Amino acid sequence: MEAARLSQFEIVAREDFSDVTYLLEVRHPLMAKAARPGQFVIVMAHERGERIPLTIADFDRSRGTITLVVQAVGKTTREMQQSCKVGSTLHAMVGPMGIPSPISGAKKVVCVGGGLGVAPIFPQARGFKEAGTYVIGVLGFRTKSLVFWEDKFRACCNELILCTDDGSAGLKGLVTEGIKRAIAKHRDIDEVVAIGPPVMMKGCAEATRPHKIKTLVSLNPIMVDGTGMCGGCRVKIGSEVKFACVDGPDFDGHLVDFDDLMTRLRRYTQVERAAAERWSANCRMKDLADPAAPAVELLELPDPFDDVKGG
Predict the structure, then answer these.
(1) Which of 51, 144, 177, 261: disulfide with 173, CB 3.0–4.6 Å?
(2) Do domains 2-97 and 108-265 have the same CATH topology?
């Protein structure tokens, strides 16, 4: 009984940023103490649940919590969106995993986050700021209503460039426009760190390549065990094959084969869609028994060549 209790990780706070993007703050004092920027966890919502990797978006050592920001785009993340409420628990959470992002001795750094990538870039921006680095934040969203954590970034960035696809907030355009503006203003940028959809990170790498600015990206391939055993997360970095879970997730953006990465991300699209449809159909059957239950919207699975709704 005691072992079963200890395997539960309590959700102590939740915030919904949009209809598909939500924040979970989970109590785990040991993990909060050990976590570093750039690392991730593998979560199981319940005993028979899928293992899914989620980047640590924040950690609070005094509160003993870690923060996860999730997009409900697949079967498990949609299920978690419905079941993960304050006071409920996750069945398992393993981590912190991955090599922590290097908080180098750079004097001036640009931290770029696009859509859901805004959340995991925050610990890095804060880490650089605490190390005495001049931090320029570049954040990208589809529209103003999807913007989150602006105040948190303004508190840890010397400059913040907010970009929206439709121009409803900040600069109109993609994060690459924000990078170009930062480079035009600052000729002494030492490093760019970017997290977001693969196509966005590829764009960031191409924007910095002509200027020979060191660019690190955080990769998100298919991952199962998180120990390098399954091989599902292998990525091509220059002439080498690496495993994102143990060799990353951060890599030199100028060496990453993004086209191969995006092709791999599409490999299980049909299986993922079938799982989501089965789960959604089951939820609709439950709705018939409970007319007061909210309808379940079956969203399109994300295309790695594009951003996703809510990002």
Answers:
(1) 177
(2) no
pTM score over 0.85: no
Domain residue ranges in the chain? 2-97, 108-265
Which residue(s) pair with 69 in the sheet? 23
Answer whether 134's CB lies under 8 Å from 128's CB.
no
Query: Quick check: 271 pLDDT over 60?
Result: yes
CATH of 108-265, one of 3.40.50.80, 3.20.20.70, 2.60.40.3080, 3.30.70.1560: 3.40.50.80
Percent of the chain predicted with pLDDT > 70: 85
Strand partners, 244: none
Cβ partners under 8 Å of residue 106, min gap 6: 128, 133, 190, 191
Annotation: CATH topology of 2-97: Elongation Factor Tu (Ef-tu); domain 3 (2.40.30)
